[in-house]
Amino acid sequence: MEKINMENIIKSFFLGIFMGIVLQFYDRTEVLVSYKVLTILASGSIGFIIGFITEWLTAILPISIANARMYFFINNLIALVVTIFIMAALMMITSSGMEIKQQFMTVLLIVLGIICVANLFDYLMYRRAQNKLKTFKAWIKDK
């Protein structure tokens, strides 16, 4: 439990809220604003659950894959698989019409795309921080 990265779980919550907002623009049905807010908060909660499961599974992985690129790749794969399972479970629980399944695939692709872009951005920020750290160490060493 001590290897679980709580920062990533919190990021997943806010990423879920962001996805809820994006999907509100995709779905143009007329509902009360309070329902839209509840939907956004529910997507944030689902993002939190996905983040927790992803970080828990990532924490179980052996330390031998400590390469940053491999860690981010595996973390992204786990997040995608967990998201697919949770969204498929939600789809089966709520409805089963063919029209809804077609719309579900579009929503699933949007969500998976956002997750991939977010994980790529997280990796790029990690690489940027490592490069800055390397530059700072070299600067300190020269002084």
Nutshell version of this structure?
The chain has helices spanning 6-26, 33-60, 68-94, 98-142. The chain has 143 residues and is an all-alpha fold.
General description of the model:
This protein is an all-alpha fold and 143 residues long. The chain contains four helices and no strands. The chain has helices spanning 6-26, 33-60, 68-94, 98-142. Helix 1 packs antiparallel against helix 2 and helix 2 crosses helix 3 (68-94). It is elongated and about 65 Å long.
Topology readout:
Elements: H1 6-26, H2 33-60, H3 68-94, H4 98-142
Helix pairs in contact: 1-2, 2-3, 3-4
Distance between the amino and carboxyl termini = 40 Å
Low-confidence stretches: none
Tally of alpha and pi helices = 4
Could you give the count of β-strands?
Answer: 0
Please describe the structure with a list of short key phrases separated by commas or semicolons.
single chain, 143 residues, mainly alpha, 85% helix, 0% strand, elongated
